[in-house]
């Protein structure tokens, strides 16, 4: 069961001396991540498992209809993922190009993952955080909603391409629907879509449009709950329950696991 697995994973995580010894043998582990692992246990737990504070309210035996799965990576998993996003001589991470229409998009063979969401949901900030170990890669962020106006393509080594899509809703580009719908429908190497939802307000009408497009085109997609540090524990629990119920009752292609980020 998900919650039992979470507890077991957390117990293993906090055998910190053994974890640190294993990670010390992993050359990809950055100094920043090593410093994170040295945080006090409670602070580290909250950082690595942001939904753990509400998991006791989501026990499978009480809410079997939700089938909730909580993101539960081990420190070793995080270290391996970190190596994918760390720029080195043999792992080039770089901006490729931007496009306002599909016929302007670069012809790339690698698998693609795209990030979509309402304006000011924190999409570009999340992508910038993913590229924190590649500081030469510029991801522009702004406090003004609707800053991203084009599809921006970023190469992640030999692994895949990240696509930052324009935000929908307030100040969205006039041709947003045509741009995004065409990309989602026709991009043959698109493997996963990450749909960002603001934890403060939950799924909005504009989010439903994006969800409908993913469902119509039979695309596998994931819901990412952003700004969880802006919500109280009770409000966050309410949003998690509502979104999980929505996923289980009204979607076909949505990954059943909800991702949460600060």
TrEMBL record:
Its cofactor is Mg(2+). Keywords: GTP-binding, Magnesium, Metal-binding, Nucleotide-binding. Residues 109-262 form the EngB-type G domain. The keyword Metal-binding applies. InterPro entries: EngB_GTPase, G_ENGB_dom, GTP-bd, GTP-bd_ribosome_bio_YsxC, P-loop_NTPase. One of its GO terms (cellular component) is mitochondrion. GO terms for molecular function: GTP binding; metal ion binding. The keyword Phosphoprotein does not apply. PANTHER family: GTP-BINDING PROTEIN 8. Belongs to the TRAFAC class TrmE-Era-EngA-EngB-Septin-like GTPase superfamily. EngB GTPase family. This is GTP-binding protein 8.
């Amino acid at each position: 069961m998900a919650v039992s697995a979470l507890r077991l994973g957390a117990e293993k995580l906090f055998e910190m001396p053994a974890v640190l010894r294993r990670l010390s043998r992993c050359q990809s582990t950055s100094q920043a991540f090593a410093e994170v692992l040295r945080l006090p246990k409670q602070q580290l737990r909250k950082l690595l498992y942001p939904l753990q504070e509400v998991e006791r309210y989501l026990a499978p035996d009480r809410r079997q209809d939700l089938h909730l799965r909580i993101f539960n990576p081990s420190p070793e998993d995080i270290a391996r993922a970190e190596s994918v996003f760390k720029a080195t001589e043999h792992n080039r991470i770089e901006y490729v190009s931007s496009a306002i229409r599909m016929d302007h998009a670069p012809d790339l063979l690698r698998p693609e993952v795209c990030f979509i969401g309402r304006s000011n949901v924190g999409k570009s900030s999340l992508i910038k955080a993913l590229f924190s170990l590649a500081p030469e890669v510029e991801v522009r962020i702004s406090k003004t909603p609707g800053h991203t106006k084009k599809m921006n393509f970023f190469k992640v080594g030999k692994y895949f391409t990240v696509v930052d899509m324009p935000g929908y809703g307030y100040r969205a580009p006039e041709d947003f629907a045509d741009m995004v719908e065409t990309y989602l429908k026709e991009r043959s190497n698109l493997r996963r879509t990450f749909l960002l939802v603001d934890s403060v307000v939950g799924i909005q009408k504009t989010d439903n449009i994006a969800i409908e497009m993913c469902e119509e085109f039979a695309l596998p997609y994931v819901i990412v709950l952003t700004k969880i540090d802006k919500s109280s524990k009770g409000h966050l629990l309410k949003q998690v329950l509502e979104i999980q119920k929505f996923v289980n009752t009204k979607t076909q292609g949505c990954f059943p696991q909800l991702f949460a980020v600060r």
